Amino acid sequence: MKSKGFFRFFSWMRLIAALASCIDVLGLPEAHAKEFWFEAQELGKGKGVFEMGETEIWLPTTVVIDRKEDLNEPLWFVVQNPTGIDHEFAVGGLSMLVPEEEAIPEIKLDPESGGLLPRSIPVPLHIQVKAGETKKVQVARRGLVGEENLGARYQFFCPKHKDIRVSGTIYVD
Q1: 84-108 confidence digits (pLDDT tens)
Q2: How would you classify residue 151: left for phi > 0, otherwise alpha for psi between -120 and 50, otherwise beta?
Q3: Which residue range(s) make up the domain with 15?
Q4: What's the mean pLDDT when you consider all of the chain?
Q5: In a shared domain, residues 87 and 14
Q6: Residue 22 and residue 45 share a domain
Q7: Are residues 45 and 24 in the same domain?
Q8: What is the pLDDT of residues 18-77, one digit of tens each?
């Protein structure tokens, strides 16, 4: 009787091992995220403010966020600056999520306090992107969900060069 139980246990273990290897080979569906990419453009060289007129720094100039499709998963903005100068990327009215200790540097988590879980805090979406750098930020859902935000419009731009540049618009559909 004991040997039957052992073989039954062994058979279950083989089945579990086989399933685990299938999962390893085929992979489980991973948590997906929606990403929108923005890329900085080179500024005109040797031209004054009046000769240049309005020029987009960040492309694409129009982004549409579909509430039904894009907000079912975490939303990220990936901001690339392949140019030779530093830029900033800001979206008026939207927030990004940053770790609590970055948002409030005075907070020090005491390791002896039971290990509080780190939190993300929404702060205005405004980042500095140095020349040749790419940054990825998670966008807070606030401002994007709810019936009052259907058809909302948010302008994104480079605050560092806002006096001579216009960038684009994010629409919530």
Answers
A1: 889 999 998 999 998 766 666 555 5
A2: left
A3: 1-30
A4: 74
A5: no
A6: no
A7: no
A8: 444 443 333 333 446 799 999 998 766 544 443 445 566 888 999 999 988 898 899 999
**Dihedral of CA 162/163/167/170: which sign?**
positive
Q: What is the pTM (predicted TM-score) of this model?
A: 0.68
One domain, residues 22 and 53: no
Strand partners, 96: 123, 139
Number of domains in the chain: 2
In order of 98, 118, 150, the CA distances from 101 in angstroms are 8, 8, 33
CA angle, 139 as apex, 123 and 91 as ends, to 5°?
70
Residue 26 shares a structural domain with residue 36: no
Distance CA 29, CA 21 (A): 15
**Is there a single domain that holds both residue 143 and residue 68?**
yes
